[in-house]
Amino acid sequence: MPIQYNFDLKNANTLGLPAVASHFLPLTDPAQLFELCQNPGLKALPWRVLGGGSNLVLPEQINALVIAVALKGRRLLREDDEAWYVAAAGGESWHEFVAWTLAQGWAGLENLSLIPGTVGAAPVQNIGAYGVEVKDCLYELTAYSLADGHARVFSAAECQFAYRDSCFKQAEAGKWLIGEVVFKLSKSASIKTNYGDIGQELAALGLPLSASAVAQAVINVRQRKLPDPAVIGNAGSFFKNPVVTAELRGQVLAAHPELVSYPAGPDHYKLAAGWLIERAGWKGRQLGPAGMYQKQALVLVNHGGATQNDIASLTAAVQADVKEKFDVELEAEPVWW
Ligand code: EPU
User: Fold this and answer.
1) Residue 1 pLDDT class (50, 70, 90 cuts)
2) Which residue's CA is the closest to the ligand 1 atom numbered 5?
3) How many CB atoms lie within 10 A of CB 4?
4) Closest ligand 1 atom to 297 CA
5) Which residues have a catalytic role annotated?
6) Taking every pair of C-alpha atoms in the chain, what is the biggest distance, in angstroms?
7) What CATH code is assigned to 4-69?
8) pLDDT tens for each residue of 53-95
9) From atom 43 of ligand 1, which residue's Cα is the shortest distance away?
10) Where is it localised (predicted)?
11) Closest Cα to residue 230, out of 72, 84, 29, 95?
């Protein structure tokens, strides 16, 4: 087994944090897990699964076996009157997979264009953008047990998807490696253009309405608003949009009539965390080498040289200010190792 020691992960996390893994293995075949599970030395270590590293806050030293999912492949499994069933391996790039489905003429994932990361990581936090979440098209997935390597198929219902959440962040956290995901891409999928700037961007593009045109509009909007991790380290939205009671939303609204919020189930509202952070004075503001992005206050950026401690200090400072000013608790979205 080609284990590597003291492996540098700085280029393997989009925040660009300095991090070294004591043990590292690129997994190219799920059968490798069986072998790993029979190695007592490796079994004694904690295990961590690494995808595209775009939703992670890494410490400088990681005393663990880091398994980088390098499983590749994508194919049409079957087709019926209703849908195409398309499988992709966990290590495929999410954006390349989406672009490939669109090139085949299969619509459904276009609103999720240009999201960094891998196919296998997408269900873990139920990635979402512009009115669509991955759960809307996910049929089932195959995961491999980190305890003994056995395969288990999870139906979409078993994944327990919620806003930026699934069982893989809750009860099943740390127990599975997602090897393959099957998507059900409906033949009668309707194009969703009603979120924010997408309709406007489509009109500006002047293209006939199609899934590929929506993808192009999404790409343009994301490139305008969100920093490119290759240029400035970031992990996308750093906090979840908080879901609060109608009562708390009413209190904030009374003091700030311009509050941005959306209904989120009976008696609850989702507040725009970017708005709260901006109004708390953090848009474009730095604390040490990390800061909140100038064009989108919800995105935390590494201006160069930040460590996990710097990110933790900034996270705590933003959370404390938003709590003090609005009495709202912000929850960080990425996974911390
Ligand atoms: N807003 C501000 N100030 C800011 C940022 C936003 O006032 O600095 C306001 C905007 O004016 C708008 C509202 O907040 O009225 C929502 O902003 P935006 O449309 O940019 O979306 P978001 O709620 O900030 C969410 C997702 C993004 C996703 C976009 C588009 C979360 C945590 N984030 O952001 O996802 O791309 O919607 O659907 O739900 C990600 O998860 O990494 C991510 C980028």
Assistant:
1) confident
2) 274
3) 14
4) 8
5) 164, 237, 333
6) 61
7) 3.30.43.10
8) 999 999 999 999 999 999 999 999 999 999 999 999 999 999 9
9) 237
10) Cytoplasm
11) 95
